[in-house]
């Protein structure tokens, strides 16, 4: 099964926009009510065994079941009789708000932290239409239940053979988007290693440096627009909250944030396609950039968006039939790509000059070449391990333990550790 999400800009009229905003507010209240039931049930189980607090939580019987997803979904028809406002929202859209809550609850239980929170006014910004009898998308409009036809900018057509499974309407600032989920019953194999390899080293001084010597300066989109954002936020702070002037100024701030996000993502896609044009195999470091974003250079790290860039590069490589892999990031800037000797240098040293073999080049380019070499070694080691395993399985009398011993030559997994660059 092949699944894509295509995002399009839609243009609802004033009546449709007002109805979408009202639906989001109703779904937000239903979400908060269902979350309140879960929190009350949990709080009632925290009290002492012989008494309950009358001030902090409700008294719920001990045999009361946990308000699960099925129970809360079955309570929606009863709630519509007491609150007729719920009937305005399509039933499946309202059900998806409850399902969204329980997905967050299951995620909280699996990792042990991140209890779901109540959503404030304006924090519920999407509606999911999970099912359609026929294709709702035409060349000019998208048809949604209880809304009718909404103009859409279909800048790229939906590929033939794909069917529309669900549509999510998203509000960003004062703009509306439709994220259309399409599926096709086809199996696409992952790209195999082939062709010219490229190692990519990314950092703050240079956004990326490849093993071929290509260097891209950091765009610093947020830094360039930070003074304008600071001015807009200062003006918003001086307005009275929930007033018309406050909402106008809040929209200006949201538009600027949305603009920064768009130009950053566009830059990432262009650089990912440029990497695919330059080579057939792309290797990057296996780093957890969330850790680096919490340090003293957190603003610069978030402005560059390295995690998003790696994800986009992996997607573009898969889409264009290029091989993508991550390698171990330890010591990529402290190793010589020619002789593999250790060359220690501080962050202030921006030139790689190997005292062992005399190889001299830019520090980041040398790191890219080390990443490329590690990627090639990783592929060759994985290929040799696969061949040895296949040969051992064909030999008579080779036990299970011997097969396992031959698989020790698997490539090392990347670590999520910040490299010393």
Record the SSE blueprint.
Layout: E1 2-10, H1 14-44, H2 69-74, H3 76-82, H4 91-111, E2 126-129, E3 141-144, E4 148-153, E5 163-172, E6 175-184, E7 197-202, E8 208-210, E9 215-216, H5 221-237, H6 244-278, E10 281-285, H7 289-292, H8 298-304, H9 306-319, E11 323-327, E12 351-353, E13 360-362, H10 363-394, H11 400-406
Parallel strand pairs: 7-10, 10-11
Antiparallel strand pairs: 1-4, 1-6, 2-5, 3-4, 5-6, 7-8, 8-9, 12-13
Q: Can you characterise this structure?
A:
The protein is about 45% helix and about 15% strand. With about 425 residues, the chain is α+β, with helices and mostly antiparallel strands. Strand 5 (about 165-170) and strand 6 (about 175-185) form a beta hairpin. The radius of gyration is 27 Å and the shape is globular. The two termini are about 40 Å apart.
**Low-confidence runs:** 395-421
* Envelope shape: globular
Reading side by side through the largest sheet, how are the strands ordered?
Answer: 2-5-6-1-4-3
Rg (CA only): 27 Å
Task: Provide a count of the helices.
Answer: 11
The topology string of helices and strands comes to EHHHHEEEEEEEEHHEHHHEEEHH
Q: Please identify the structural class as seen in this structure.
A: alpha+beta
DSSP strand (E) fraction? 15-25%
Question: Helical amount among residues, as a percent range?
Answer: 40-55%
The major beta sheet can be summarized as:
6 strands, antiparallel
Report the span from N to C terminus. 41 Å
Tell me the total number of β-strands: 13
Q: Whole-number average pLDDT? A: 88
